[in-house]
Amino acid sequence: MQNIRNIAIIAHVDHGKTTLVDKIIHVSKIFRENQQFEDLILDNNELERERGITILSKNVSVRYKEHKINIIDTPGHADFGGEVERVLKMADGVILLVDAFEGPMPQTRFVLGKALALGLTPIVVVNKVDKENCRPDEVYESVFELMFNLDATEEQLEFQTLYGSAKQNWMGPDWKNPTDSILPLLDAIIEHIPAPKIDEGTLQIQITSLDYSNFVGRFAIGRIARGTISENQQIALCKADGTIKKMRVKELHTFEGLSKNKVQTVTSGDICAVTGIEDFEIGDTIADVDNPEPLKRISIDEPTMNMLFTINNSPFFGKEGKFVTSRHLRDRLMKETEKNLALRVESTDSEDRFLVYGRGILHLSVLIETMRREGYELQVGQPQVIFKEIDGVKCEPIETLVVDVPQETAGKVIELATQRKGELLVMEPKGDLQHLEFKIPSRGLNGLRNNVLTATQGEAIMNHRFTAYEPFKGPIPGRINGSLISMEGGQCTAYAIDKLQDRGVFFIEPGDELYTGQVIGEHSRDNDIVVNVQKGKKLTNMRASGSDDNVRIAPPKRFSLEESMEYIQKDEYLEITPKSIRMRKIYLYENERTRMAKKED
Ligand SMILES: Nc1nc2c(ncn2[C@@H]2O[C@H](COP(=O)(O)OP(=O)(O)OP(=O)(O)O)[C@@H](O)[C@H]2O)c(=O)[nH]1
Ligand SMILES: [Mg+2]
Fold first, then answer.
1. Cβ neighbours of 545 (radius 10 Å)
2. Do 492 and 474 touch, CB atoms closer than 8 A?
3. Which atom of ligand 1 is nearest to the CA of 12?
4. Closest ligand 1 atom, residue 21 Cα
5. What is the pLDDT of residue 544?
6. Bridge partners for 402 per DSSP
7. Contact in structure between 205 and 272 (CB atoms under 8 Å)
8. pLDDT > 50? residue 380
């Protein structure tokens, strides 16, 4: 029987989890083989690298002092919180990372609450003590207070604390005295995280995660709660609907460093990846073939938002993408639901349109961005929060919003949040910033980030997380400005844009190909207007000379995918192709829009 420790690393977004896990892998290799390694990068998919965030949790494993330590790196963004909750089932302890300047944030509270509820005792790591304005002692105090407020047991309140800098590769008991390695953390794990509890009985593994390999197909990943599992063994798969299917294990792997290691047998307490299990879902139990006993299923957070996904039917349809039909869209969305647990897809009365339910803007935008990179064209509608009727009362999702801003702009931020039914709960100094906490309907967050950043010259740090459903708070004013809409199709000219500059801000550049009904700018007033940007002199070389009209044109306003998702109105779509993101009116022609608006009244 080997000595095993199973730990999950949890924290608010960006507090340094992945950096720390990279360093742990690094040091354990050096420790064993006495050699240098390249920088390891755990955030290995393209979107994770570009955005510098973890989207999927990952299993790795290191060996240290006769122990095998299985580590699960988790995502810190609130939209992926369901993932954390699930993988905590594989752990016997957690490392809670907290940024030595920021302190506990909304997601810290959420993940810590889940860990405490599962009876796990954390090792607290106050990370980033190298930051100039850090305040590790205060942060320690607030972590203690947070645990207390989350009803931690006496035992849990006696948590171990380490200070350090994952980036500078050290951990130790005192933040003022840097050590020369992160080994003190590994020692603390071995000493304070309990070994897995071994229950007597036949095989039980709950599938908590999955992985793909081009060679062997899908891996079912889980921790062996009871018994042993071997290559080629017959097992029973216990499904959600109560059915039990007999199948055979093909290959069996354990985690070793960043990769997997093929093995013959794995015993209870360890985490393994199994192939050969067909049609499994997360939450299913792999059990003994003669005595199948399923484990209690994992509940998954309900979606709080939905968006209409539809095929691209703009005049530019099919020009830039490979997969454009409703069949393509349907198959791709259905495939996604197999691994993206918090996502739900519903058919509508039209075979071209689907309602996609998710946990927030980022959750849905990651899917959209992935699809566009794969060659899909699609359109999406304005994100809608999901209302619920609770005891006969219409309720809506409410979030905790935390904004840290420079003193002098705090007033503006409070005003913006209050306009959207935000309720200020906390206002206190944090370093030289002002720390604000609000309770606000999810609806009110739509587009708020953009306004807050503008109001604070980009200085605000903003975070929010779903807390609960509460009775509907009443109407919230939407976007104040209307849209500038292209009257005609074709290339726009610098001359025409220049003449219209006093009407608002443009999202397009001279020379862009447009179509009738495309949203090309923001009107300076509250109504939509149709403008002609094609007329006038066609300047052949837009950028060439200083005497051209175009030199006076303000640069176009550019939106990220998420900003556009938050920007569009109810009667608008976002057209997404591998090459472009365009906004458009659902009804491209003005007479159609007038007719439809009348119908709605
Ligand atoms: N100054 C400083 N920066 C750090 C430290 N540890 C991590 N960082 C930086 O913080 C940023 C976020 O680090 P990550 O390790 O990706 O954070 P994470 O917690 O994995 O983030 P998510 O997975 O998105 O929740 C990166 O730019 C790191 O370089 C540290 O000890 N000191
Ligand atoms: Mg990470």
1. 10
2. no
3. 25
4. 15
5. 44
6. 437, 463
7. yes
8. yes
Name the residue at shortest CA distance from atom 8 of ligand 1. 16
Q: What is the pLDDT at residue 461? A: 86
Strands 393-406 and 461-471: antiparallel
In this structure, which ligand is nearest to the CA of 170? 1
Ligand nearest to the CA of 22: 1
CB atoms under 10 Å from CB of 595, counted, come to 11
pLDDT tens string 412-461: 999 999 999 999 999 988 878 899 999 999 999 887 888 888 888 888 88
Per-residue H/E/C for 308-326? EEECCCCCCCCCCCCECCH
Protein residues with CB under 6 Å of any ligand 1 atom? 11, 13-19, 52-54, 75-77, 127-128, 130-131, 165-167
How high is the mean pLDDT of the chain? 88
The rounded distance, in Å, linking the Cα atoms of 129 and 132 is 8
Element (H, E) at 309: strand 305-310
Distance 53 CA to ligand 2 centre (A): 5
Closest CA to 198 of 3, 61, 63: 3
Task: Count CA within 13 A, CB hemisphere, residue 174.
Answer: 2
Cα angle, residue 229 at apex, residues 223 and 235 outer, rounded to 5°: 100
CA pair distance 113, 90, nearest whole angstrom: 16
- Determine the distance separating the centroid of ligand 1 and the alpha carbon of 15, expressed in angstroms: 5
Residue 331: helix, strand or coil by DSSP? helix
The residue behind tokens 């007597």 is: 200
Question: What's at 141, amino acid-wise?
Answer: E
Distance 83 CA to ligand 2 centre (A): 13
Helix 410-419 with 448-455: angle, nearest 10 deg: 160
Q: What is the 3-state secondary structure (H, E, C) of 132-166?
A: CCCCHHHHHHHHHHHHHHCCCCHHHHCCEEEEEEC
Ligand nearest the Cα of residue 166 is 1
DSSP letter (8 states) at residue 199: B
Rounded-to-integer distance, Cα 562 and Cα 53, Å: 15
pLDDT of residue 215: 77
- Judged by DSSP in three states, 283 sits in coil
First to last CA, the chain: 72
Substitution candidate for ligand 1 out of 14, 50, 54, 77 with most atoms within 8 A of CB: 14
Q: What is the pLDDT of residue 34?
A: 46
- Residue nearest atom 30 in ligand 1 by C-alpha distance: 128
User: How confident is the model over 359-369, as pLDDT tens digits?
Assistant: 889 999 999 99
Residue linked to tokens 């979030």 = 399
Q: How far is CA 83 from CA 54, 80, 325, in A?
A: 11, 6, 31
